[in-house]
Amino acid sequence: MRTPNGPAARIVVVGAGFAGLAAVDALAGSGADVTLVDRHPYSTFQPLLYQVATAGLTSADVAYPLWAVARKRRARFRRGELTGVDRERREVQLADGTRIGYDYLVLTTGVSAAFFGVAGAAEYALSLYTRHDAVVLRDELLAELEYLTADPSGELRITVAGGGATGVELAGTLAELRNIALPATFPEIRQERMHVTLVEAGDVLLAPFDPALRAYTLHQLLSRGVDVRLSSAIEEVREHEVVLAGGEVLRSDITVWAAGVAGPAGMSALGLPTGRGGRLLTGSDLRVQGDERIFAAGDIGLIEGNPLPQLAQPAIQQGTHAAAQIRRLMQGKDTAEFRYKDKGIMATIGRRSAVVQLPTRIKIKGTIAWLAWLVLHLVTLLGHRNRITALVNLSWRYLTWSRGGGVIIGDETPPPRHEHAPAGQQARPG
Description:
By secondary structure, this protein is an alpha/beta fold. It is 30% helix and 22% strand.
């Protein structure tokens, strides 16, 4: 497809998450010169990162090479990190000095953890938004369990901050790892020596869900032995502690932050208007405010006056919509307003336990919801190999946990014990 002046339009898509890949998909076959840019050579399937973090999947199961994505969609892939946008010259600038010209730009860079100014959170809490985050958490968890095997008096206390889908899924799976896999995999460790605490500042878990599904989720976590703290804001994170508002101090050997997201560091340096959480402000058609040729889609975009849930479906629909508007502009047409089509939400709590809420007011919980969750996530994984290996690894996990199987280890050397630890506690790896 060509611009009104003749040459093929140059379209640059920065970010290979759900929104970015949807945009590239929608531009395939358009005749435009499409370049996909990402700082990693792979796309990460974020909904299954918690399975990598709890040693159920390998990191390769949730990653797919972007050069293969680009080739199948008649686009080019360029690895690089966005550092600037020259709006006058219509160029994006990458960290290595490369400049790529564009006629239309789609920013789908995703987000990072938002610590909301909580002291120590950035320094001492682990995030779960990237493949690297998941591998770090997995290695940290397994190293801690290894140390416990040699320390009969020690304990492992894990705190998960945030009662959204990520926090619930992680806490539930950690509890199942303790209840089912621990006796066979680490027989020296009694189950009561591993504690999982979920801390949520609000008064409910999974706030977007129906109250009945929220209540079911809470019951399922409690039945698995998760210590759920509702209406408990975190005031400070220390090296081995979490301090709640009101002064209560929880020992925490591993603290995982799943309490919110914000625009990635450096986004404000692009000179584009930002709103809450450093996200890019857009109009109803997803064009960044003040620029006719730049779109923002997915978690990084914030439609002024109409915030959307930061989930996969809104991101996919926004990426597709941004691409459709670029096609309209190249044809000399006006853009159209983005309208989100609610296709439902779901979250898993653990084996044979999940919640599904459809827009038709249908609500499902339990084993059927869990199977629906599993099938949908396997189907939406990129690549046949990934689908097969993920299915094999997850099946093996659920079938063999109680016999010591289903725990995928890394090859990293366990970190050394800290020289300093909370008073009265033995030092632990950080």
